[in-house]
Amino acid sequence: MSEDAPKAIDLFCGAGGLSQGLTDAGFDVLWGIDSEENTKPTYDHNHDHEMVVGDIRETEPPDLGLEEGDLDLVAGGPPCPTFSLVGRSKINSLEGQSTTTDERHQLYEDFLRFVDHYQPKAFLMENVKGMLSAQNDDGEDVVDVISAQMEELGYEVTVKLLDSADFGVPQHRERLFFIGNRIGAENPDMDQWKTHREPKNEEEKQIKFNDAGGPEEEDQESLQAFSDTEEKEFPHFEESPGQREPWNTVADAILDLPPVSPSGDTPPTHAEEYTMGPVSKYQYWIRGRPGPDDWEGRTLYNHECRGHNMRDLTLYKLLGEGTSYIIGDIPEEHQPYRSDIFPDKLKKQNPKEPSTTVVAHLYKDGHMFIHPTEARSITVREAARLQSFPDDFEFPVARTHAFKQVGNAVPALLAQALGTAVRKKVLGVEEEESATLEADD
Q: Where are the residues of the annotated region Disordered (predicted)?
């Protein structure tokens, strides 16, 4: 990475989905922190900068070797489980504060404490959709309270709810983002950076084949195009991109991966090699390092499914296209759970749509993520693809920890879209400079 690359840190970094996306957007991520010890093997395996495990409430901002104000971006997704306790506390009163001194302490305040310390040119904070409708004990809108605290630190703030499917991720995942800058720039309007849209008809829901045989040989006019505009390499993020493509789907994301079976017979319970090349444009991209065409003999990481009992396997087989995708729609006598409370407790993912939101609960069971064509729940690799982690991003931990890390992550592709928008719109680092950075890496 070039010394001129914009610098960032990642708070509450987890396995590193946000770090991955920011790196792909041209940022040099210098440091990360997370409280979960099991995330460190994954983060260290996939990133080449320092990541520490610790309680951010008791962690002082480290010396990054930068002059004051030279950090370009503080990013992170602090958990905020108790919205009612969000108050108008002054950030400068948080120095040395812990949960033992103030039970109302919220982790987003530590995010702002790091912002106040480094005075970065910009910040990017992610949180759950529920914050939009939350109020504190005083009846104030939580989003307004937090935005006001950010503005007190000297930042112009924009708050936006985004669905990752609108940015090429094969998954519906709505998350709230706070974007701020203190350098007088205009924050990006992320509606203008969307690359994908809802399909207009059944034809647009079909898998988006990459007919040209790979990026190096591709003839742009021979690709199956969904617009009259010139085909762009995926992913391509720019403001006001023109015609958008239909959402990427579960089929686009995972159906090139070899089958696995919970029976342990044929096919096996896990696969360590690809058995065919990529088919869709998304698959070409996600296999893209070292190259999508160089797949024979390459290791396939984390493609292993959990075991299932015969009752679950039978129910899994029952669900699917032509019947129903959720167990709540089948006759009551076959319901394993109360249908009035858990209508979607068992859900088979529809291959013609983006997946439902990948959740950390996957580490407990996979009932809500049944494979679209096989009677089993999805593998870690398939969950990672739905979260837009590239195939060479390995999770070298137990399967339960891997599922949890994937489910908790910011989709890497959405992070790349946000990072690119901030880099171009706020920091003023244009495409030519980014290309130079990648060439120097």
A: 187-227
